[in-house]
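Technical annex, item 7. During the second reporting period the consortium partners agreed on a shared format for inverse folding records so that results from different sites could be compared directly. Each record opens with the tokenized structure and is followed by the designed sequence. A conforming record, contributed by the partner at site C, is shown below for reference.
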């Protein structure tokens, strides 16, 4: 955990050297239909749920070295344990523990990455802390464009999620797997996703409610391929969804959704190719990215959105 301080409004968290708050803020604002947080006036407002407590926080830049986390509403965090949990949550969300120096050293000489690194210097892989949310987002996003995926997520969250209210506004909490595990596909029929996707989401919720699928279990695997195999055993989770979750939630540095349409389109944009690159060509380019495949993918995605 990074050095932090307390003040009368909340907590100050030391940021790593290669971190640019505004660059990350710009990423978080890429779709106006995002429902899990609100971004405006150089601040992020969102609900954080830790130790079975829900608190609404405002995250802003205190100066070039600290993020300020101000507690706005919800549970009052009195214990040091709870405050440390908030710090860990923010650190994980912004991936503060990763040292980007080796990535930038490699990527600044890479023909596919050099432009993205120059444009988005200080960008971190923004994480998805909750495994169920990450899996749902992966399933919802299968074979549709990003705009429609955000629409589906909002419909899902607003129908089955809960809220904290502050100054007349609702701030959403992602639906729990316990709640979704008790639903039938028909209960979700007014959400514009396919019946198969509704079944997949409910099946995942049931596995998590039984304790058969947990973030802790997936983090205990020795390598990426073991964790990927475990995820792809689950109905509705293929290699793309598995690698997306391994990248955004479980922080495997070598997770690589090689068949991702966004990755392919970003490569076409950067290289000027008119045709779709072959998987063999992508693997050849990616051979220079060893143990940085996740960051390379994330930065290439950012070239598009």
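Designed sequence (site C submission):
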């Amino acid at each position: 955990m990074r050095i932090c301080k307390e003040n009368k409004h909340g907590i100050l968290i030391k940021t790593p050297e290669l971190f640019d708050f505004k660059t990350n803020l710009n990423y978080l604002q890429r779709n106006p239909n995002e429902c899990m947080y609100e971004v405006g006036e150089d601040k992020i407002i969102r609900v954080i749920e830790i130790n079975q407590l829900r608190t609404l926080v405002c995250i802003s830049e205190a100066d070039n070295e600290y993020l300020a986390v101000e507690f706005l509403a919800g549970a009052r965090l009195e214990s040091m344990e709870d405050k440390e949990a908030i710090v860990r949550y923010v650190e994980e969300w912004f991936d503060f523990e990763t040292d980007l120096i080796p990535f930038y050293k490699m990527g600044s000489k890479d023909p596919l990455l050099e432009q993205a690194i120059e444009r988005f210097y200080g960008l971190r892989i923004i994480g998805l802390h909750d495994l169920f949310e990450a899996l749902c987002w992966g399933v919802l996003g299968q074979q549709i464009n990003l705009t429609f995926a955000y629409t589906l997520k909002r419909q899902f969250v607003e129908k089955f999620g809960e809220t904290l209210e502050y100054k007349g506004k609702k701030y959403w909490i992602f639906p729990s797997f316990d709640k979704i595990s008790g639903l039938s596909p028909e209960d979700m029929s007014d959400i514009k996703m396919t019946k198969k996707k509704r079944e997949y989401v409910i099946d995942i919720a049931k596995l998590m409610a039984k304790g058969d699928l947990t973030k802790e279990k997936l983090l205990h695997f020795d390598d990426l391929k073991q964790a990927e195999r475990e995820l792809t055993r689950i109905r509705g989770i293929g290699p793309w969804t598995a690698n997306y979750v391994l990248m955004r939630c479980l922080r495997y540095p070598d997770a690589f959704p090689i068949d991702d349409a966004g990755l392919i389109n970003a490569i076409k944009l950067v290289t000027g190719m008119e045709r779709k690159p072959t998987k063999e060509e992508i693997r050849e380019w990616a051979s220079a990215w060893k143990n940085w495949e996740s960051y390379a993918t994330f930065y290439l995605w950012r070239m598009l959105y």
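Residues 146-160 form the longest helix (15 residues). The chain is about 45% helix and 15% strand. All partners now use this format for quarterly exchanges.
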